[in-house]
Structure formats: C-alpha cells, structure tokens
Design a protein that fits this description.
single chain, 5 strands, 18% helix
C-alpha cells in the first residue's frame, strides 16, 4: 500500500494478505470488492473488507486505488502473488523467524506460518 502508515510522504507498507473473496461490483467502472486478512498488521491478523478501483491489470499484478469512506485518505495498492524473494525483501522478520526450506512451495510456507490449512 502506498503511502503506508509511517513517514510524511510515500513510504510503502508491505504485508502478505490472505484473500478470502473478490467480487466485481456491477458499476462498469472497474471496481472490485475485496475481503482479506492482513497477516502482518501491527495489532495482529486483522480482517478487512474494502472496494478497489482497478487502475492497471497485468498477468502478474493488479494496481488499484483504495476507495475509502473517510475523507482525506488517498492510497493505492499493488496486489500480486507472493514469491520467496518478495518475502526476503519486504518481510525479513518472517525469514529470520522461520526460513523456508529450499524446495518449499511459498504458498505452503505461508499457510504453515499463519496456521492455515490448504484449501487446494
């Protein structure tokens, strides 16, 4: 998410999220409703439900404006699949607490780390 919660300008906030549901709104304006858990939120795992306006969609990521109800909040987000290198770069505390095995699937690693059972 850009900007994040610290700094005066555009210090990003990075956290893995666990997507529970994505529902397109029937507005014709590229709006999605997203239900997710922010797994590294400062107060612990927390559920969120919000609308996003899609700004760019590619095979590898989605760039969107976060649509808040409160005035004066202007943030954007990048949502993508997480790779091991992403975790090393943006969440080094996870790697320090439990390094993934070299052959471990990153989705399985995150599910085990956050005590999820695989739905696959």
């Amino acid at each position: 998410m850009i900007p994040g919660y610290i700094g005066e300008r555009c210090v990003p906030y990075c956290s893995p999220i666990y997507v529970k549901a994505v529902v397109p709104r029937s507005t014709g304006r590229g709006i999605l409703h997203l239900d997710f858990e922010n797994v590294l939120y400062a107060r612990g795992v927390e559920e969120f439900s919000l609308d996003l306006r899609v700004l760019k969609r590619t095979p590898d990521y989605l760039l969107a404006e976060i649509l808040y109800q409160e005035a004066g909040v202007d943030r954007s987000t990048v949502i993508s699949s997480i790779e091991a290198e992403w975790i090393r770069r943006f969440c080094p505390e996870l790697i320090a607490s439990r390094p993934p095995a070299v052959t471990e699937n990153i989705s399985d690693y995150l599910e085990a780390l956050f005590h999820r059972t695989s739905a696959r």
